[in-house]
């Protein structure tokens, strides 16, 4: 449906359930398999796949995803965790929700090749403020070929 509506990418959210008490025995291995499945399915539909969350498996997931989104990497000290993604030449976007963290992180993230935006928690179209030091031009994500088959249950 996404492709038919003109979208070029999908960005599944909350894909780190194994890090929470989940009551169903979800493990890191389950999550890795599921997240890889999500990326492969997006690619099979001709869509780029973005990863938000699951920083604990970022190194293993970087080959499968086309771009990365972080929320509040300045606030939580996570910006440096995207080194494998940047080394692979993949775009990384960061969203900050307070001007303090936004202003503090802009210069650092520009040197890391990260694009940072200040948004309200409601994620409406405005406000939309970008760091003046953002790397530009920034490549549009494009789907990679599926690197491996979908997982089996």
Automatic annotation (TrEMBL):
Residues 136-153 have a biased composition (Pro residues). It comes from the Eukaryota. Gene3D superfamilies: Aldolase class I (3.20.20.70). Residues 134-153 are annotated as: Disordered. Residues 1-124 form the Glycoside-hydrolase family GH114 TIM-barrel domain. This is Glycoside-hydrolase family GH114 TIM-barrel domain-containing protein. It comes from Monoraphidium neglectum.
């Amino acid at each position: 449906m996404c492709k038919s509506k003109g979208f070029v990418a999908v960005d599944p959210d909350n894909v780190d359930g194994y890090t929470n008490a989940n009551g169903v025995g979800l493990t890191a291995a389950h999550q890795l398999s599921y997240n890889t499945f999500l990326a492969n399915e997006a690619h099979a539909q001709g869509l780029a796949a973005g990863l938000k969350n699951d920083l604990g498996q970022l190194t293993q997931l970087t080959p499968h995803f086309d771009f990365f989104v972080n929320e509040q990497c300045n606030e939580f000290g996570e910006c440096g965790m995207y080194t494998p993604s940047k080394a692979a030449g993949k775009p990384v976007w960061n969203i900050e929700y307070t001007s303090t963290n936004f202003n503090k992180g802009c210069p650092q993230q520009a040197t890391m090749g990260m694009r940072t935006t200040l948004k309200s928690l409601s994620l409406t179209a405005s406000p939309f403020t970008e760091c003046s030091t953002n790397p530009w031009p920034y490549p549009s994500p494009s789907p990679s070929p599926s690197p491996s088959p979908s997982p089996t249950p």
